[in-house]
Amino acid sequence: MKCSWRDGNRIQLLENGDNYYPALYDAIDKAQQKIILETFIWFEDEMGKQLHQVLLKAAQRGVSIEVLLDGYGSPDLSEPFVNALTSAGVIFRYYDPRPRVFGMRTNVFRRMHRKIVVIDNTVAFVGGINYSAEHLLSYGPEAKQDYAVRVEGPVVDDILQFELENLPDNAPAKRWWQRRRHRPEENRKPGEAQVLFVWRDNDDHRDDIERHYLKMLANARREVIIANAYFFPGYRLLHAMRNAARRGVTVKLIVQGEPDMPIVKVGAELLYNYLLKGGVQVYEYRRRPLHGKVALMDDHWATVGSSNLDPLSLSLNLEANVIIHDRAFNQTLRENLQAIIDHDCQRVDETMAPKRTWWNLGKSIVVFHFLRHFPAMVGWLPAHTPKLAEVGPPVQPEIETQDRTEAQHSGAKP
């Protein structure tokens, strides 16, 4: 399928789980026909149990529900937890649920990283927020800073159609000569309340999200702000950021200063000299771990979604973003990100970047190319061909025993 820019949508920015979860649960409580939910992480903690309860209530009142979880991100949900949902009729699938080998997980690459919820054909949620308590501010210093959007309007039909075509699809991937490269969908009639749904897969849409970033940077005239948790893109995007800065665009990049994984900061620091020399302003978010994947340009363009700007998201993972053309939304996101820059970030200068020596330059080049290409090389291995596995409803032997006893008493065959 191919999505187009849709007019006449209602778009709401949701910051962190404190705003996201109540809005989502309210929409689920109002569902009448169908709910499709897919996510990378669903933990069986306080927040995960709340989601479990609202979905269970919806299923019990007759709403059709399909859930897709990533086998790597959500490997530890208990059988009773899942069985309660499947017993109520929820279709529950795992993406690439491979067994452990010597205690180690083998489904490391090509993760299902999307975070999408579609309710009936009226409302959808897209973003980077998973289902765990660590997305709540009450979690403490390790609470994640993140974003999602709630959308109503014509674009919901596109998101629903995407889900219906992709969730149960077990067709083999196309050969490389059968794949078609999609150009970024241009907004030929810019206006307000316009939304485009875009995604990345390992077939025809391998670089759609990255190409929208490149197009945005090429079109920028005044300002670009990118906030991305795992920032380690290829040369094309780095060049585009520097080129925009060199022609007078204020380019601000927000990355993790208190990362949840140390390697994240190591990778970003390799790029500091290159970006700073090109005029890009780099800020480290220091308040808590940054998990957001958002960007804006000038006074109308913005994106929110699940895609990081790193090798996994740009080369292997299944991702989804919305591109938004709306001045009010752009301003809301800009005020949020600028407040983060003003109050919670430290601007990176040359003293914070690795010293510019021949040794550091050579090391950076080797590490850069290794980190950029290693996931893609491993992803070609047959062992990582992903599949969907559905969890069936549990067998209920006590009901079977009761039926057999009743049949014997009545003289009928069980």
From TrEMBL:
Q: Where in the cell is it found?
A: Cell membrane
Q: Its topology with respect to the membrane?
A: Peripheral membrane protein
Protein EC: 2.7.8.-
Q: Catalytic center at which residues?
A: 113, 115, 120, 291, 293, 298
Q: Note whether Lipid biosynthesis occurs among the keywords.
A: yes
Q: Which UniProt keywords apply?
A: Cell membrane, Lipid biosynthesis, Lipid metabolism, Membrane, Phospholipid biosynthesis, Phospholipid metabolism, Repeat, Transferase
Amino-acid biosynthesis keyword on record: no
Which chemical reaction does it catalyze? 2 a 1,2-diacyl-sn-glycero-3-phospho-(1'-sn-glycerol) = a cardiolipin + glycerol
Q: Where is the PLD phosphodiesterase domain?
A: 108-135, 286-313
Q: Which InterPro entries match?
A: Cardiolipin_synth_ClsB, PLD-like_dom, PLipase_D/transphosphatidylase
Chain spans, region Disordered: 391-414
Q: What Pfam family is a match, any one?
A: PLDc_2
Family to which this protein belongs: Belongs to the phospholipase D family. Cardiolipin synthase subfamily. ClsB sub-subfamily.
Protein name stated in the entry = Cardiolipin synthase B
